[in-house]
Design a protein that fits this description.
The chain folds into 2 domains: 50-148, Immunoglobulin-like (Sandwich), CATH 2.60.40.1220; 165-257, no CATH class. Helices cover 21% and strands 16% of the residues. It is built from 6 helices and 8 strands. It has an 8-stranded mixed sheet with strand order 1-3-6-5-4-7-8-2, with no helix packed on it. The structure holds heme C. Residues 175-176, 178-180, 187-188, 190, 200-202, 207, 217-218, 221-222, 231-232, 234-236, 239, 241, 244 line the site of heme C.
Length: 262
């Protein structure tokens, strides 16, 4: 009796399915200009997209434009010299970009000065850029249009501050060494040589890879919302150690980008 009721229920479900044509609930994938399907991220993954541009509408004739993404990008999915350019009809100004991981930002500065009082469009040319979890760039991401104003100050080159070891050592002493400086914890020592020469005990990466903050596991552990790491962010939220500020995290990034000097 009970069995028959179950079969009945299944039949009703199948009929409902037919009526609402179950098979087509999945939406058609979006197509690109050539009619090819655009790659979609896994349903549980986010798209990569541009969250913010600074400045927003007026730029100097030698601007630096900060493009902020919604998440961390994988810098090996674009080249620094071909990722972006500013275009005004047939005038094209390419330049260099620099990935500032802590801010989820790519800074772009054209190689040569722009023309005053012209309208420029920012073009993002590295369409294969991916997030660190492999999400592709949203195909309909909007890019800003600018007007140049030669009364605005020209921006300096994209150099980073040259952060020395003492300036990061001071942070580790203040926020980390209560635990990492105590050998009974058996944690990696946060010394310059300890960080640069040591493979993580948790993943297959070096704690610090000089010149490459994005590949350094230390960064993955101290950025609270970094999506890939084992165990918790550092300092651990279960401890009463004072968290690092975003400026302090960025100081550590600059030190690694400077080659992790002694
Ligand atoms: C309350 C003690 C404590 C404090 C403070 C602390 N850590 Fe840790 N740290 C740990 C423990 C425990 C682990 C291992 C478990 C984990 O990763 O969450 C660890 C793991 C790490 C790892 C991963 C090591 C590896 O082999 O992969 C790094 C890197 C790290 N900490 C850096 C820091 C930094 C930088 C700070 C300061 C900003 C800090 N920690 C503050 C206890 C601490």
């Amino acid at each position: 009796m009970r069995r028959r009721r179950k079969i009945g229920a299944l039949a009703t479900l199948a009929a409902l399915c037919l009526l609402s044509s179950c098979g087509q609930l999945e939406p058609e994938p979006p197509l690109d200009e050539e009619g090819e399907p655009i790659p979609m991220p896994d349903p549980h993954e986010e798209w990569l997209y541009f969250e913010e541009f600074a400045p927003e509408d007026e730029i100097s004739i030698r601007p630096t434009i900060a493009i902020t993404f919604n998440t961390y990008v994988n810098p090996s999915t674009f080249t620094s010299y071909a990722a972006a350019r500013l275009t005004s009809r047939d005038i094209r100004n390419s330049g260099r970009v620099d990935y500032r991981m802590t801010r989820k930002q790519v800074l772009f500065r054209p190689n040569a000065s722009l023309e005053p009082d012209l309208s420029y469009v920012l073009e993002w040319r590295a369409n294969d850029v991916e997030s660190v979890t492999g999400s592709p760039l949203h195909p309909f991401a909007l890019l800003p249009r600018y007007t140049t104003n030669d009364e605005l100050e020209m921006s300096p080159p994209l150099d980073r501050p040259n952060v020395q070891w003492e300036e990061v050592e001071e942070l580790f002493d203040r926020h980390c060494n209560d635990c990492h400086g105590d050998s009974s914890w058996q944690l990696p020592e946060l010394t310059r040589d300890g960080l640069v020469g040591t493979r993580s005990q948790q993943v297959e990466s070096m704690l610090v890879e000089p010149f490459h903050p994005a590949r350094s596991y230390l960064m993955h552990k101290i950025l609270p919302d970094y999506p890939i790491r084992r165990f918790t962010e550092q300092p651990p939220p279960w401890s009463d150690a004072e968290p690092l500020s975003i400026e302090e995290i960025e100081r550590i990034e600059h030190w690694i980008a400077a080659g992790a000097p002694r």
